Amino acid sequence: MSIIIFGSINIDLVATAPQLPIKGETLLGKNFVKVPGGKGANQAVALAKLGIPTHIVGRVGTQGFGTELIDHLQAAGVQTHHIFVDETVSSGVAIIIVDDAGENQIVVIPGANGQINQADVDRLSGLLPTAKALLLQLEIPLDAVIAAAAAAKKANVQVILDPAPAKSHLPAELYPLVDIITPNEVETAQLVGFPIDSEDTAAKAAEVLLQRGVKCAIVKMGAKGVVCATQQETFFVPAFAVQAVDTVAAGDAFNGGLAAALYTELPLHQAVVWGAAAGALAATKLGAQTSLPDRLTFDTFIKQRGVLEDEV
């Protein structure tokens, strides 16, 4: 059994600056790094580094970083046989600015990711009979996301959707195909139409998402913690206190930790704690995939914090 990621594969061009620029402002930055990213690839690496058998289905281009991106995924332990090399476009690129507080602004150029279509869903479908879960995001065409979720549902494979980048409206048909949805505060507000500024508003938003058909809604609020709701229960998991350096990929790390725990048959509450721990660790390092914790680092962090010691 394995977990499948269907999503974006990017190269991230990351600049650091004292603060994020406002409209029309030019800032002198501090540093620049080039690191592999893309929400799909990030989640795949997050899982593989935690020791979970992981396949990724997606696209890279022949121009601009394609071979480098595949090599990095393979080095992390991700199975890449189902990545299509698209000769008509460049690979996806994300341009990222990170300030001294660890906050960020991101512009994504989809490239090959924007060409994903039914042919990719068909390649994905061949993996579903041996899959335990399918992780989806929104950096690829929405039609392909819906088709992939429908294929997974038909195969009785759990669907975990990270609805990022944020969209004001998702098609009503997508929600019932989703077992677990994991928006952050901004994405949740976009989906439900009201701000998320507390545990209470997060719980209210989760209830709205449940009413739309998802089986479980997890609202990630960064340093304010996580609210998780199902039809049976709603609970809160506090954030792990860390010194944030860069929040890029923290949400992807959360989904990796969550899915890894569910893969190992841990209960939902413990899976959310795993997600919170992985996300916190990712926020302590610069970059996307370069910030994702390996299993030894993750296990050590969990044990040092005195939670789930018997489950790691």
At the fold tier of CATH, the topology name is UDP-N-acetylmuramoyl-L-alanine:D-glutamate ligase
Percent in helix: 25-40%
> Biggest sheet, in brief?
9 strands, mixed
Strand content: 15-25%
What is the total domain count? 1
How does the helix and strand content classify structurally? alpha/beta
**For the largest beta sheet, what order do the strands appear in spatially?**
5-4-1-8-9-10-11-12-13
CATH architecture: 3-Layer(aba) Sandwich
| pLDDT < 50 runs, ≥5 residues | none
Mean pLDDT level: 93
The secondary-structure element order is EEEHEHEEEHEHEEHHEEEHHH
Number of helices: 9
Could you characterize what this model shows?
- This protein has 312 residues and is an alpha/beta fold.
- The protein has a single domain, classed as UDP-N-acetylmuramoyl-L-alanine:D-glutamate ligase.
- The protein contains nine helices and 13 strands.
- Strands 5-4-1-8-9-10-11-12-13 form a nine-stranded mixed beta sheet, sandwiched between helices. It has a four-stranded mixed beta sheet with strand order 3-2-6-7.
- The model has no long low-confidence stretch (mean pLDDT 93).
Keywords:
globular, four-stranded mixed sheet, nine-stranded mixed sheet, alpha/beta, 9 helices, 33% helix, 312 residues, UDP-N-acetylmuramoyl-L-alanine:D-glutamate ligase, single chain
Gist of the model:
The protein is an alpha/beta fold and 312 residues long. Helix content is 33%, strand content 24%.
Topology:
Blueprint: E1 2-6, E2 10-16, E3 31-37, H1 39-49, E4 54-63, H2 66-75, E5 83-90, E6 92-98, E7 104-109, H3 118-125, E8 131-136, H4 142-154, E9 158-161, E10 180-181, H5 185-192, H6 199-211, E11 216-220, E12 226-230, E13 234-237, H7 250-263, H8 268-282, H9 295-304
Parallel strand pairs: 1-4, 1-8, 2-6, 4-5, 8-9, 9-10, 10-11
Antiparallel strand pairs: 2-3, 6-7, 11-12, 12-13
Helix pairs in contact: 1-7, 3-4, 5-6, 7-8
